[in-house]
Structure formats: structure tokens, C-alpha cells
Predict the 3D structure of the following.
Amino acid sequence: VVFIAVGALVNVINMTINKTMERNALPYYRLAGIACLVSRAGFLASWLRSGKARDFSRRQALWVGLRGLFGGSFTFICQLLAQSVGTPLGDIGALFSVNVVIAAALGALFLGEPLARVHVAGIVLAVAGAMLISQPSFLFGAPSGARGEGHSMLWLGYLLALMSAVFMALNLICARMLKGASVRMLTLSTLLQRGVGLLALDPLRLVDDHSFGGAWETRPFASAAWLALLTVSLLTSMLASNAGSRACPAAVSSVVFNGVNMSSGYLVQSLLFGTVPGPLTATGAVLMLGAAAAIAMANRLQERRQPQLSNADDCEEAPASGQGEREEAPGP
């Protein structure tokens, strides 16, 4: 649980570093991309030396690649882009918590997993919470002072935050299809695709990153210090989340991560950036967390029932087979 909480907290710190570096005219996206690719080199060397590199199959490569793409690259980049258009950190965390609900719906749709009443209740809570957080104008009317460019782009930020939840849900589906893969290989895939994605944002004109060469020429020591901080924070977030998810039940880890990620995001935006959530936003955040908790606990109960059902089936089959043997046994 501690590792999961640390991973969620450091994830919010990464988002805070992004905003701080942008205010100080430093190229966050390219420095973060370089930090991911440099860290990847160390994981690649460690994985190649291990014996698991020889047993790596094409099927594992497919699902490992998709996990890195959805969970490592697209999820993180959508959150960064949402913040870049002015979406508050807490709102991003709250909307991101719906990933558990989306994963349950996708599991029922594509994997044939049962959808209980608790899942349906969680979906309803998630939709209501998303409405209260985003407060669309067709339901709540245009807020005062909403004519500015920053307010007109908030809808895009909320959409990107929801897309990050969708990609994380796809990552969770890929995780169910992937068994026995090395954690080092998963981290390697995540670092590679996140690094490439971050480096591609400025050339694709998705963000307006600051001058990379100018930062190293005018402030080389500050640039090097930020690069080191980015490397440590990104690695800490990934390693803590991976370690916690292996030792902690999925139901508990999802609730802890979403709760810490959301609450710390609202705390940071209130203390550092002066954006205090209103009562509707706070209510929506509570509903989103309740939806995530309901879905996670429902999944946990289903996991506990499956072994009990399989054991009951085994007990029913055993007497039947024994009776068949006694009936077919030749007489004296």
C-alpha cells in the first residue's frame, strides 16, 4: 500500500514539475523524454543479462508493447496535454479515476466478464461525478468570466483527462492478457514509448516547448539538475507502482492510487496554484472515488468466488466418478 501511495504521489509531483518548468521557460517535454530514454538503456542492459530474455515470445512482445503504449505513453501524455490547456490537477486525477469503471465495462464487452449490479452502480456514479467536475455548459450554463481563451479550452482538457482514463483501462485489459512477463521488460517498454512520445510532442506542434539548445547554453547547471530530478521522479513513480501492484491486491491498489492521486492533486492546485475546488467539483470527486472503490471491490469479490466455485465443481465431480467406477467393477 505504501508503494502504491508513493507512486501516485510522485505522479502528481511529475505533473507539478511540468508546470513549474514551463513557468521557468525550461523544455520539460524534451528533457523528460531524454530522461526516459536514458533510464531505458539501463533496464535494457539488465534485461538482456537475465535469463528471461531468451524466453520472450512474440505474443508477450505484442501485449508488452500495447501496455507500454497505452499505460506508459498515451495515459501520461494525455494528462500532460490536459494540464497544458489549463485543467486543474485535481480534476485530472478525479476524471482519471474512472479508468477502473471503464476497464470493467470493456472486460464485460470483450472478455465476457460478468457485470454485476455493483458495476452498474459504479458506472452511474462515475458519469454523475464526471458531470459535476467538468460542469458542461449545456447542464450548468456558462460560468462567469468564461469568455477567455483558457476557459474555452477547458472542455478539451477534460476530454483529454477522460482519454487518459480510457488508455489506462486498455492498459489494464492488456495486463489481464499478459502473464509471466518480466517487470523489467514492462518498465523497458514503458520508458521507451513514453520517451519517444514526449520527444515527438513539440515537432508535431501538440505543445510549445521551450528552446532546448537555449536552455543548455544559458542555464546548463539548472538544466542538468532538472534532468536529474525528472529521471529520479519518473523512475520512482514507475518502480513504486510496479512493486506495490505485485504485493497488493488489485482492488486495494486501484483505490489507494486513485485516492492519493486525486487528493494530492487537489492539495497541490490549492496550495501552489491558487485553484480551490468548489462544492460541485468536490462532490464529483467523491462520487468518482466511490465509483472506483465500488468497481474494485466488486472485482475483488468475483475473484474470491471463482476459486470457491471451481472447488465446489471438483467436489461434485469426484463422487460421481467414484460411483461410476464402483458400478463398472466386475463382480466375483
About this structure: The mean pLDDT is 78. Residues 279-328 form the longest helix (50 residues). DSSP finds 14 helices and no strands in the chain. The radius of gyration is 23 Å.
